[in-house]
Amino acid sequence: MNWEKMNLATAFFVLVLVFMANWSADAVEPPSRSLAWPGCPDTCGKLTNIPYPFGIGPGCFLDPQYEIDCQQTSGIFIPVLKNLSVVVLDIRLPKSSHSPGLIRVSQPISYSHLNCTTNQQNNTPVDLTRSSRSSFSYSERENVFVAGGCDTRALMSIYHTEGVVLECKSSCGGNWTLGFDHCRTGKGCCTILINNDIGKYSVKFRTLKDKAIAPRDAECRYAFLVETKWWYKAKLNSLPPDVPVMLKWAIGSDEEYLLSKQSNRSGNDNSGSCRRHSMQKLHLLVCSCNQGYRGNYFLPHGCQGELRMFAFALYLSLILYPKPSRTICNAQNL
Fold it and tell me: How far apart are CA 136 and CA 252, in angstroms?
């Protein structure tokens, strides 16, 4: 009977270990509670769990540059970052104080001719330097520059970075399937990495012999900045009207001051931290919950300590693990 109890105890301990392993895997998942300011909506259309400092409506965002305008068009709700007039696809808090937060937005493609696109307009890339204290920048790690068309030399001029012009060359040939795997050779389309901090850029098209594009040139050329992960998976037979682009974000000294004025905010605990980060020659702050905590740093008491499951499981095993009887002990001593 005692051996049966020990077998049951062993099985219980194994279950505890399995539970701990599963909990450790789940611990990295985002918390289920809302990351928005208390009492504020956190969903607009397909954009869910909008985290503060971003927010919808008065009193729900930290600063006007983080305001999400939930617009309704033909019964469909579309989240727009009001300060930049761009559609928002996803918002991510900083994973640590070493890496800025990320916001995924939709941006149109640049063409060499207006008749290359059905909307009959050639929208310029979003200018993230409109404000002198902008908290946003195109992520050099999360995006690549793509261009295509026959006899194409696409030039990407980066503002506020003297002399930096990136070029992507695309020769004739290739097939009409677009994506990273199909653009590596430079036939029909090309892809280049971004190594610069970008707040504003423009695109110009020339021929491979560095000649200007003739007004009557029928060849359609295109270029766009796009999220790297999306482009690596893309297999397109035609270009969409817009592509996803990753912006990085941080807070400035003004937002830091606003946070310090929040009620119920503790400035002396170890649950979260901030680190200086240079972006577009501005000195910003990247803030996040420290290791062992999770949640939203920007909310009062937003970083919550994770439950120490190991200690709890060990406590349970010590309490419930059946101790061997004296009979078994005496038999072992014989």
Answer: 10
**95/206 Cα distance (integer angstroms):** 41
Return phi, psi of residue 79, to 5°. Answer: -80, 125
Q: In what order do the strands lie in the sheet with 86-92?
A: 68-73, 76-81, 86-92, 101-108, 242-249, 136-138
Residue type at position 265: R
Determine phi and psi for 20, rounding to 5 degrees. Answer: -65, -40
Q: Which helix (H) or strand (E) holds 243?
A: strand 242-249
Chain centre distance of CA 36:
17
Q: With b meaning 16 or more CB within 10 Å and e meaning fewer, what string describes 3-13?
A: eeeeeebeeee
- Bridge-partner residues for 277, per DSSP? 284
CA–CA distance from 126 to each of 86, 149, 247 (Å)? 8, 23, 11
What does pLDDT average to in each consecutive run of 10 residues of the chain (334 residues)?
51 50 45 84 96 96 95 94 95 93 94 72 78 84 93 89 82 75 84 87 92 83 93 85 94 86 63 86 88 91 68 52 50 50
Please check whether residue 151 is in contact with residue 172, taking contact to mean a CB–CB distance below 8 angstroms: yes
Can you list the positions of beta strands (E) in 2-75? 68-73
Instruction: For residue 283, give the 3-state DSSP assignment.
Output: strand
* Whether the Cβ atoms of residue 44 and residue 60 lie closer than 8 Å to each other: no
Q: How many helices, marked H, and strands, marked E, lie in the chain?
A: 5, 17
Q: Please, are residues 186 and 129 in contact by the beta-carbon 8 Å criterion?
A: no
For every residue of 130-188, DSSP letters joined together read SSTT--EEE-TTTEEEEEESTTEEEEEEETTSTT-EEEEEEBS-S-S-BSTTTSSS-BS
**Residue owning tokens 């796009």:** 226
H or E segment to which residue 24 belongs = helix 2-26
- The per-residue pLDDT for 164 is 77
